[in-house]
# Entry
Amino acid sequence: MKNDYTNNKFRELLDKLQQESWQLELLISGFAIFGLFTSLEPLALLHQEAIALESYTKYLYIVAALSCKVLIINLIIHVLLRGLWIGAIGLRYVSGDIEYDSLNYKKRFTNYLKKKVGSFDKYIGTLENYCSILFAVTFLYLFYIISFFIIQFIILLVGAFFIESGIFPGMVGYSLFGIFCFIFLFLSFIVFIDFVTLGYFKKKEWTSFLYFPLYKVFSVITLSFLYRPLVYNFLDNKFGRKLLFILFPVYLIAFYASSVNNVRSNYILSKSYSTKNYISNINYVNSLEKGQYIRRAAIQSEIISNPYLKVFIPFRKNIEDIVLKQNPSLKPKKDIRGYSSNFFSSNKKDALKDSVQLKYLNAFKKTYRLKIDNLNIETDFLITKTNNQLGLQTIIPLKEIIEGKHLLKISRFITSKKTKKLENEKVIEIPFWYYKQ
# Structure
């Protein structure tokens, strides 16, 4: 009978647990805050790795990082309020209730304080309510975040089906995807309106009739059936509703504050990649820090003492798209890109043939153009891995290059969407100094 919610003993047990739960709340909050703070850096590194490897798990790490930050904000507020609550209880043990008359204030202030501040026990009770509700709403907001990203994931999944799967012709796939997005986002907006209005569509007869099927479908899509009891327990309590909506602007302010930085110059600004006037360590292999990955291109060092320059271009899916668009003869009968099981590997045999790879590398060489200053460079790319990144590498001899500062310019030919003609697009410019040993 312990888990029978209609049994009086079970209710007495719940009443006892809810009175003593503050100890567990503090213990869990302390460990959780420490664990969440230490997990932010590994999640950022994993996110960078997923971006470099073009893995869809990058979206998972975004959700995880955002969830951690929301939990940290809520739990820190909870610990501060719970600490204040413990301090107030200790003070009550020593001093009892507030005796306004003993303060000898004038009647105007005494009456005002009695009305606005009230009993000290009321203050302790209010703190207790905030702490208890805040601990529960922390995990409720976590479910909201997961639900929001599930909606985004469904759109990405459907987009991959209509556009990237190759089942539908180009314009047909885009059209079907556009129709789906319009309908799905419109229905999602209706569910959101019902949420922010605390169930407006559930309160009228004709809207409840129309909204009920949509409500059941989105309950499954957003996994709200897992946390629905928490939601309705908040909504039937005025205090809970108030706290639920107060926290949202707190999150916005906290996230905005975390994005604020001090700009010290109008002209000297930090960038994420090298230009002719800026050096970024992400474009020099020997300067890469732990968790950093090459984005556009990299050379071995910013100061070159060897008689050669090693250029590495990390592979991206869009690179192959550009190459295949300019070389239709290279297009395979079946595109094997994407997630697949290694159990059936026969589809990859043709792609691994040396003759096929050589044609691909020759096409890549024609697509990408390298210059040192204004000198065109002949390239011969090979497939390799640098810093655990798959990419293409070429070695440039520097015998004809004089000592001093130089600029490596990398560009590529792309097919213009407007004119359908080839255009030369700048990829990156990497400065370096060359001094012979």
About this structure: The radius of gyration is 31 Å.
